[in-house]
Amino acid sequence: MSEIKEPRLGYQTNPVQVKLFPTEIESQIEATTKKVRVPREVFRSLSSTTDIITWITEGKYDRKILKLFDDVSQLYELLLCRMEFLTLGDDLSLLRRRAAYFEEVEHEKTDHFFLSAIQGKGQIGHSNQYLTHWFYPYKGKFHGQMVKALINFMGVGKDSLVLDPFVGSGTTLVECATLGVSSIGIEINPALCMVSQIKADSLSIVYPEFRRELAKIKPSSIFEYFRKKPVEGKKWRLGFKEMNKDAKLLLAESWQQQFPDGFVKTLPETWRNLLFLCYLHALSDYTYLKSTSKAMALEEFFIRDLNEYLDTVSGTYRVLQDRHIQVQAPKVLFGTALELQLPPESVDGIVTSPPYSIALDYIRNDQHLLDYLGIDTSELREQMVGLKGRNEEKIQLYRVDLRKSLQEMARVLKPASYAAILLGDVVVGSHRTNFAKEIVTWAKDLGFIEAELIRRPILGGYARLRYEYIVLLRK
Q1: Helix, strand or coil, per DSSP, at residue 370
Q2: What is the pTM of this model?
Q3: Structural contact between residues 136 and 280, judged by C-beta atoms closer than 8 angstroms
């Protein structure tokens, strides 16, 4: 049998003695072949080493004082948690009211614990689909919890203004509303302007009054009103002449032009708008599920969605009352992110997510909604970011529009303020994009002095989308 040899190392030990311990305890160490005894105080305790709160708060607090939600585990969440703490952490009362990722502050539940307990369809933990976020199925939603943390990091308060120039279905606006922060959303899709406005306005519905009125009306009667609504042959053309119109005016015009007289039309506008959105939600469910095992009659979808909407409105009203949360109503404008009708240096923070899935036709996704309202968007279609061109040309045109929108953001943002942009590395054709990293290279030319990326892995989405990136820019 051959002799067993010691493995050959790829390095050599240094014969020079290295001092591993402080001088004052050297006398306590026997540097012999016997077991070395090291005083326990030399090492960090396990509790301080493994306590993530110590890292988040830079040693200021530990898990006896602050508690994260149990589902906060990904690195990007811990970074956002640390960022919001560094802004709010000097005032634990303020942290309790505003924090996104903390469940408890000094053994008391945070407002987000109660707000995120108002569960919606498809909710995951405390991150999304709570409150009115789940109203209307929109594919481009981002997580409300993440948005809240970014708003907190920016240090915006009740006298501040937050902008979302690609407002989509209004996630940023809902979060600002419950934080008591003024906000403005810009959206080129007129239907989504109305959806965003309704979702934000529904936070302020006085549920007991609403419920008393609904008790007098059969749900089937409400359904029949909306089902018979369309005025045949009447098109509502919305183009550049209507740009910068308030979404509340769009809603008022839609009721005036598109809806017949009837009991629903006489209800207060926030009530009738919620019922209208519920019908649109049911119409979307019916359209996309009619060829699946989940298919139902349109009326069945409406009755189900109406009951779930009412549960959300009831829970929201109760929590806002119990927690003494004053909702700040946002403003939603029908417009384009490429030409913001806002004065220079007029906003204190920007949180947005451009339509980065440029392989997806966002208009076609909401076509049933547009058709129901009789909206003709033919004039706008070729001006929408992400819909211009085809194949490689589409990528180039998107790059031009994205840069232009960032120039506009830099123009309206106040000095020393932040913009946060969420983008994904979506595949277009055979090309995987990474516009987030391109933005970082553009930042200085666009007027920003700092640019950083936070990467968020998309679990299970590797073929279509591997990562989303939060691009943080400081002017």
Answers
A1: helix
A2: 0.86
A3: yes
